[in-house]
Amino acid sequence: KTEMNQTINDLKQQQHQQIEQLKIKFDMNVTNLEKLVKRKCDEQGKQIDDFKDKLLDKIQTMTTLITNIQQLKLDFIQQNIEFKKQLKQCQIKFGQSKGYKQNANIRKRRLDINTLIEEDNDDEDNEQKEKEQDIARFKFNKNCEHMISMLRFPSLKNGVDFLLVSENYRQIKLKTTNGIITILEYF
Q1: Residue 168 burial (CB < 10 Å; 0-12/13-18/19+)?
Q2: Is 23 part of a structural domain of the chain?
């Protein structure tokens, strides 16, 4: 019995040692597992913190961009208002300059018309003087041949147009394809 007891005790002791060794191994494994879990948790926590930081940076960037976009919209609206004001002013100035230009054109036209009227009056005066001179010349020329030699019309054509001279009625008429034109009447 004693031997058996001894063997049992030895077995118990071995078993106890094995259990202790297993406990130590288990504790070491648990400790290693805890360290591993802690390390993984720390890594994941760090990744989460990094992600949070990046997310916060992106949120800040987006907030800044949104603020900048809103400011640009306000600036655009303000510039648009300014451009509209400038456009109105330009249109007003253009309208005024158009009015000035029209007035200048009207003045120029009036001046041109007055010049033409003066030239026409001068031409009429010259024609009147020439007529008076021609009348004076023709009063002294009683000879029809002499009168015809003084009249030269490029529109007279042989056989078609002819000059009719009547001394009795003191008229000179030109017959053309367009009709009879009285050229000169004696007074």
Answers
A1: exposed
A2: no
What is the extent of the structural domain holding 150? 142-187
Assigned domain for 178 exists:
yes
Q: Evaluate the CA torsion angle 156, 160, 161, 165 in order and state its sign.
A: positive
For residue 24 the two structure tokens come to 């130590």
Task: Please indicate whether residue 180 or residue 111 has the higher confidence score (pLDDT).
Answer: 111
Report, as an integer, the average pLDDT of 95-110.
79
Total domain count, the chain: 1
Over residues 3-23, mean pLDDT: 83
Q: What is the DSSP string of 70-118?
A: HHHHHHHHHHHHHHHHHHHHHHHHHHHHHHHHHHHHHHHHHHHHHHHHH
139/129 Cα distance (integer angstroms): 15
**Would you say the C-alpha torsion 28, 33, 38, 39 has a positive or negative sign?**
positive
Does a structural domain hold residue 159? yes
What distances in angstroms separate CA 172 from CA 34, 74, 103, 165, one per listed residue?
A: 143, 90, 50, 5
Do 170 and 185 contact (CB within 8 A), yes or no?
Answer: yes
Residues constituting the chain:
187
